[in-house]
Amino acid sequence: MKHLLSTADLSKDEAVLLLDTAAQMAATQSREIKKLPTLRGRTVVNLFFEDSTRTRISFEAAAKRLSADVINFSAKGSSVSKGESLKDTALTLHAMGADAVVVRHWASGAPYQLAHAGWLDAAVLNAGDGTHMHPTQALLDAFTIRRHLVGLRGGAGEGVGADLAGLKVAIVGDVLHSRVARANVALLHTLGAEVTLVAPPTLVPVGVEAWPCRVSYSLDETLDAVRPDAVMMLRVQRERMSGGAGAFFPSPHEYTRYYGLDARRLARLADHTIVMHPGPMNRGLEISAEAADSDRAVIVEQVANGVAVRMAALYLLMAGDTSAEGNHP
């Protein structure tokens, strides 16, 4: 594993190794001195063509806690705004000696091109490309689920090597525009979880029947029939909706009525069920303030877990043995 581009590329052993390494990284973050010397002398470039808060800061924190040098590159205010191509930007990074490039791009497939076109001799980590993939988000989601739920339904047991077998996850909302949903479906299936996508028909992608999951058009029916162990609410991505949100559902009120997680639906969840959201949240649209701030919500914890997961990914790609039998930090 030279790059981390898609969760669909990960074997079960690789995915579990990433989660196990993240658990070790998380343990180091409770110490007084959080820094590790693992990547001292290495350079990580955050190459962001799209705005981001959580992902960029999380990758920056992860790299710095591994003692790497970090260069933050934003398309705004750079030569990209003057028309510089992705190739020329990559060649510039290569000339500067980048050891890893974390790329977020509006075009699906851009990280793959960066990794395989021969422009760079560096590890490439996909931090979100178009509506395609967001692998580290899916990994931090799986890490959070494993911490809270593994062992409840007869999975592989708690701790090192545990998968998510027997767990049920509902992913609800704007699946059509969600790279988080695509990444999670692939990874959760690999780890043994049963995934149900819940969305209005207008927000379900063409070809979803080929995905390793079930599809439902009713949140209430899913909560009753599936009894999910985790409910992941997706942000309604109005900025990606050509023609505006009105082209996909009649009104925000109607969307909330049928697909929002509110107090009434929150009360119907099993006692152990956790509520997740990749952020940023549209409070009052896909999730109510009561649900977002409830005791069963692990949304802030997802952000914290993201640092440990990204530390693990950087470590394994830049310094570690990525085999299942390899050494851990």
From TrEMBL:
Signal peptide: none annotated. It comes from the Bacteria. Pathway: Pyrimidine metabolism; UMP biosynthesis via de novo pathway; (S)-dihydroorotate from bicarbonate: step 2/3. Residues 2-146 form the Aspartate/ornithine carbamoyltransferase carbamoyl-P binding domain. Carbamoyl phosphate binds at R54, T55, R104, H134, Q137, G279, P280. It catalyses: carbamoyl phosphate + L-aspartate = N-carbamoyl-L-aspartate + phosphate + H(+). The keyword Transferase applies. Its EC number is 2.1.3.2. One of its GO terms (molecular function) is aspartate carbamoyltransferase activity. One of its GO terms (biological process) is 'de novo' UMP biosynthetic process. NCBIfam families: asp_carb_tr, PRK00856.1. Belongs to the aspartate/ornithine carbamoyltransferase superfamily. ATCase family. This is Aspartate carbamoyltransferase. It comes from Isoptericola dokdonensis DS-3. The gene is pyrB.
